[in-house]
Design brief:
It is a single chain. Among the domains are: about 80-140; about 155-280, endopeptidase fold (from Nostoc punctiforme) (Alpha-Beta Complex). It has six helices and eight strands, in the order ααααββααββββββ. The strands form two sheets. Strands 3-8-4-5-6-7 form a six-stranded antiparallel sheet. A two-stranded parallel ribbon has the order 1-2. A hairpin with a 3-residue loop joins strand 6 and strand 7 (about 265-270). The protein has helices spanning about 15-40, 60-145, 150-155, 165-175, 195-205, 215; strands at about 180-185, 190-195, 220-225, 235, 245-250, 255-260, 265-270, 275-280. Helix 4 packs across helix 5 (about 195-205). The longest helix is centred in the middle third of the chain and has 90 residues, at about 60-145. By secondary structure, the protein is α+β, with helices and mostly antiparallel strands.
């Protein structure tokens, strides 16, 4: 037998029993405190565990949104259609206005053309009547002059174109050859003239250079009386140096001149439009 068999266990069971009792007392005190606090304090609200179902709104909302989108699209289409209709109406109105203006312009142009044609026809008819009258007068005057000496009568009248010679004859012949040509302001030939352009061209055939305008041509030579004219003399209307029209005296009391756009280049009696004066260059 061991020499320690009579010695009690070294684990000290009493001490362990006291710790267990102490632990049991502490636990009981804690539970008692909790029980007392639960009895003395207010009742604690239990946590809400019930689930509340919310109404479903997505189905109705999607339908409303779709309807609104469709309505908006329809409004946009309507506005676009209206814009196209307005643009088409405006374009049509502009075209109609332009067509009307063009029609008015054409009508006015036709009216002016008719008036111009009528004026030309009247001028031509008048010119033919004047030529016929002058022809009849020359025929009447030539009959008695051939049966008598007629020297005094012929000396009192201006010289006729048949008496023109040399340079004067060339000037007169050129001027007469242009009768019937058109009148154009600034025209210098060969088929259209103004008054000073015709006079200048006629004198150029005789090798004489004249100034271009009427004012200068009216002072280009010696001033002569209208009662002492010779074929080839320059007749002018207005003042010497400020003349507004010129022509060439061709004899027999007549002149050739580019008158205006209505009559063109004509041969007329001095009594038809009496000149203001005359100048002799030859």
């Amino acid at each position: 037998m061991s020499h320690t068999a009579h010695i009690p266990s070294h684990r000290k069971p009493r001490q362990r029993a006291s710790k267990s009792a102490l632990r049991a007392g502490v636990a009981g005190g804690v539970l008692s405190t909790i029980a007392v606090a639960g009895a003395a304090g207010p009742a604690q609200a239990e946590p809400v565990t019930q689930t509340i179902e919310m109404p479903t709104i997505t189905s109705g909302l999607s339908t409303a949104v779709a309807a609104s989108a469709q309505a908006t699209q329809q409004v946009a289409l309507d506005l676009e259609t209206q814009a196209h209709e307005d643009a088409a109406a405006e374009s049509a109105a502009k075209k109609a206005k332009k067509a009307k203006a063009e029609a008015v312009r054409k009508a006015e142009a036709e009216k002016k053309a008719e008036a111009a044609a009528k004026a030309r026809a009247e001028a031509e008819a008048k010119e033919r009547a004047e030529r016929a009258s002058r022809t009849a007068e020359r025929t009447t005057l030539s009959a008695p002059s051939s049966s008598s000496s007629g020297n005094s009568a012929s000396s009192s009248a201006p010289s006729s174109s048949s008496n023109a010679t040399g340079s004067a004859a060339a000037i007169v012949a050129f001027a007469k050859a242009q009768v019937g040509d058109a009148y154009i302001s600034g025209g210098t030939g060969p088929n259209a003239w103004d008054c000073s352009g015709l006079v200048q061209a006629a004198y150029r055939t005789a090798g004489i250079d004249l100034p271009r305008v009427s004012q200068s041509q009216s002072t280009a030579g010696t001033q002569v009386s209208l009662d002492n004219l010779q074929p080839g003399d320059i007749l002018y209307w207005g003042g010497a140096g400020s003349a507004y029209h010129v022509a060439i005296y061709v004899g027999g009391g007549e002149f050739v001149g580019a008158q205006n756009s209505s009559t063109g280049t004509v041969q007329r009696s001095m009594d038809y439009d009496r000149p203001s004066g005359a100048v002799r260059v030859l």
